[in-house]
Amino acid sequence: MAVFTPLTDAQVSTFLSRFDAGSLVAVKGVPAGTENSTFFVTTDRQELVLTLFEQGEHEELPFFVELLDYLDEHRLPVPGPLHDHDGIALHSLADKPALLFPRLPGEHPHHPNLAQCRALGDALGHMHKVSQHFPGHRPNPRDLHWLLPMHHQVLAYLSPEDQALMMDEVEIYQGFFDKAPDLPQGALHGDLFRDNTLFDGDRLGGMIDFYNGCTGDLLFDLAIVINDWATEPDGRLDPERYATILAAYQAQRPLNTSERDAWPMMLRMTALRYWLSRLLVVYVDPPAHDLTPHDPDQFRTILKRRLEDGALPLPEVAS
Ligand SMILES: Nc1ncnc2c1ncn2[C@@H]1O[C@H](COP(=O)(O)OP(=O)(O)OP(=O)(O)O)[C@@H](O)[C@H]1O
Ligand SMILES: N[C@@H](CCO)C(=O)O
Hints:
This protein is of the alpha+beta class.
């Protein structure tokens, strides 16, 4: 269902001729995904992914290309976009912006094992180590500056108890982050859930779908990862996956004192960020397609658990 704009073989062939990528053998629509049209393209030389951008801020696409180029140059497992004979990556196809990527190996890990958690923590830590020097700039579109106005839009759909929970939380984050010392900054993935990674066995084949990529607090990215990768269905943290991801991450980039102090609050704020974005999809701005939306209550449950249990202790950094 993630082909919103069908393409003919002739259109794909003509598009491919701009690149040094070989001649078309086969093209196949990819059913996964909800935002863009995605195709697997086989040429006589390689396997590729063609993405047509259906929505979102098209003027921000050059930022994503610059970020992927930078991370690819720094040997992170990301799909560095192909550039054409003139060095240009971003083109138009069927009147939509289009990018061509290498197809990375692997499957999304639904139940990640500890080796996969270690690989993910290591890659994210490596990414954040180098992304602090990334020259691009795109303010985080889902941080506290977004939560503050947007949470008002969903309050009418919530029970009185949930309204109080959401309003109290947003006020607490504002009080906390207004006074907290600045946190280390860099480029973030912004949505590094399991279904935005590919694993070939225990090897991380790639981190994909960088269209929430931005610059801001690195800790925000890490908290999103922990809330998805190391959380049980009842919202509890899984101690082993938690410790494994955080130890591998900190072997690359140790958290500083301000980040350690902000950690429990960041876990809560990023849980609320997804509770809110999913509520907005369900009640305020439903997409045109009829795919089942993600369940907002999953992140309400996670938020309540973080509130009741706090965060587990952060692993100490090996010296
Ligand atoms: N470079 C790649 N290598 C291999 N598979 C890929 C690659 N890029 C995308 N895919 C596959 O295509 C699917 C859809 O891609 P993507 O997540 O970018 O789409 P989307 O419409 O933006 O989805 P989402 O709903 O996650 O925002 C992915 O789940 C993955 O299976
Ligand atoms: N990862 C998001 C969906 C894509 O932005 C969620 O689980 O709500």
